[in-house]
Automatic annotation (TrEMBL):
This is Electron transfer flavoprotein, alpha subunit. GO terms for molecular function: electron transfer activity; flavin adenine dinucleotide binding. The keyword RNA-binding does not apply. Residues 8-184 form the Electron transfer flavoprotein alpha/beta-subunit N-terminal domain. The keyword Transit peptide does not apply. FAD binds at residues 229-230, 261-268, 282. Its cofactor is FAD. Belongs to the ETF alpha-subunit/FixB family. Binds 1 FAD per dimer. InterPro entries: DHS-like_NAD/FAD-binding_dom, ETF_a/b_N, ETF_a/FixB, ETF_asu_C, ETF_asu_C_CS, FixB, Rossmann-like_a/b/a_fold. It comes from the Bacteria. GO terms for biological process: carnitine metabolic process; fatty acid beta-oxidation using acyl-CoA dehydrogenase. It comes from Shewanella sediminis (strain HAW-EB3).
C-alpha cells in the first residue's frame, strides 16, 4: 500500500478543477485540508468531494486577486504539520499563487506535474526541454508545492453525506498588494479546454481569419470546443489565449482531437498527446503531425472541412 502524508492541503481557483485536486489530496494524504473562497455551499461541496478539513477564507471579494491570499494561506500552512504538501490546479492563478507561497514558506515548487508520489518524500514528474522529455524531481523542503495538470487524478465523485471540520481564517493583508483599479469583461467566452471531450484545433494552415466560421460550423456539427496553435492566439490574435494548446498552453485529454492545418511540432503536440484519438488534416503529406495521428487526411481545408460538415450533419 502506498504511504501517505498525514495532511495534504488543496486549493483550486477554478471550480471545475476542484474534484481532481481534492482527489489527489485523498490519494496522497490521511487528511485533506481545503482552502475555500466563496459561499458556504462551497464548503459543503469540498466536504462532499473528500476534504476532511476546510479553511474558509470568506466570501469572494472582487477587490482581491487570488495571489492576495498567499500570506493568509502561508500562515495556516506553517502552523500545521511540518512535512506537508499542497496541490493546486496548474492554472495561471494557481501557478502565480504557488510561486508566492514558495517564497513565503521557503518551499520547493513544481509546476504542471503529470504524476505525484509521496512514497519516499514528495516526487513529481513533469515535462522538460519543451516537451521533449519527462523529468522526475524530488522536493526536499519540509513543505512541497505542486500544481497539477488536467487529468492527473481521476475526479472525485461527490457524496453529500460527507462532512468535516471547518476553520474560519482571518485575512492577512499582503505586504505589497496589487491594487485592483478597474475590472473589464474580457473579449471572447472563457473556456476550459482541459474538460472538453472533443476539440478541434486550427493552425496557420487555416489561411485567413474568415475561415474560422467554417471551423466553428464543424465544431457545432461535432459538438466540439475550438482550440488553436500558438501563432493563432499570440501572433495573429484570432483566438483568445485560453484556447492555445501546447507546452506553455492548455494540456488536453479529450476523446477526439481534430487538428486542422497544424504542422505538429512537439511544442504543440505535447498538449494533445493525451487525446484518445487524433485526426489530422493537412495539405502537406510530410507534416510531422501525421506521425502522431491515428487518422490522417491529406488535402485542402477549404474542401475537406465542408465535406466533413456535410457528412456529420447528414
Amino acid at each position: 500500500m502506498m504511504s501517505k502524508l498525514s495532511n495534504v492541503w488543496v486549493f483550486s481557483d477554478i471550480a471545475s478543477r476542484l474534484p481532481e485536486v481534492i482527489a489527489g489530496g485523498v490519494q496522497l494524504g490521511e487528511k485533506v485540508s481545503a482552502f475555500v473562497i466563496g459561499s458556504e455551499d462551497e464548503i459543503a461541496k469540498a466536504y462532499s468531494l473528500g476534504a476532511t478539513h476546510v479553511y474558509y477564507l470568506g466570501e469572494k471579494d472582487t477587490s482581491k486577486i487570488i495571489e492576495d491570499y498567499a500570506e493568509t494561506m502561508a500562515h495556516a500552512i506553517s502552523n500545521g504539520d511540518t512535512n506537508t504538501l499542497m496541490l493546486l490546479g496548474a492554472t495561471k492563478r494557481g501557478k502565480a499563487l504557488a510561486a508566492k507561497l514558495g517564497v513565503q514558506l521557503n518551499a520547493g515548487v513544481i509546476n504542471d506535474a503529470s504524476e505525484v508520489t509521496v512514497a519516499d518524500g514528495v516526487t513529481a514528474k513533469h515535462m522538460v526541454y519543451g516537451g521533449l522529455a519527462i523529468g522526475e524531481e524530488k522536493i526536499v523542503s519540509p513543505i512541497a508545492l505542486i500544481t497539477i495538470g488536467n487529468g492527473v487524478f481521476e475526479a472525485a465523485q461527490a457524496d453529500n453525506s460527507k462532512t468535516g471540520e471547518a476553520v474560519s481564517v482571518s485575512f492577512i493583508e499582503p505586504k505589497a498588494a496589487i491594487k485592483c483599479i478597474e475590472r473589464r469583461a474580457k473579449q471572447g467566452e472563457s473556456v476550459d479546454l482541459g474538460k472538453a471531450k472533443r476539440v478541434i484545433a486550427i493552425g496557420s494552415g487555416i489561411g485567413k481569419q474568415e475561415n474560422l466560421q467554417m471551423v466553428a460550423d464543424l465544431g457545432a456539427a461535432l459538438g466540439a470546443e475550438l482550440g488553436c496553435s500558438r501563432p493563432i492566439a499570440e501572433t495573429e490574435k484570432w483566438m483568445e489565449r485560453e484556447r492555445y494548446i501546447g507546452v506553455s498552453g492548455v494540456m488536453l485529454k479529450p476523446e477526439l482531437y481534430l487538428a486542422l492545418g497544424i504542422s505538429g511540432q512537439i511544442q504543440h503536440m505535447v498538449g494533445a498527446l493525451g487525446s484518445q484519438t487524433i485526426l489530422a488534416v493537412n495539405k502537406d503529406k510530410n507534416a510531422p503531425i501525421f506521425q502522431y495521428a491515428d487518422y490522417g487526411i491529406v488535402g485542402d481545408l477549404n474542401k475537406v472541412v465542408p465535406a466533413l460538415i456535410s457528412a456529420f450533419k447528414g
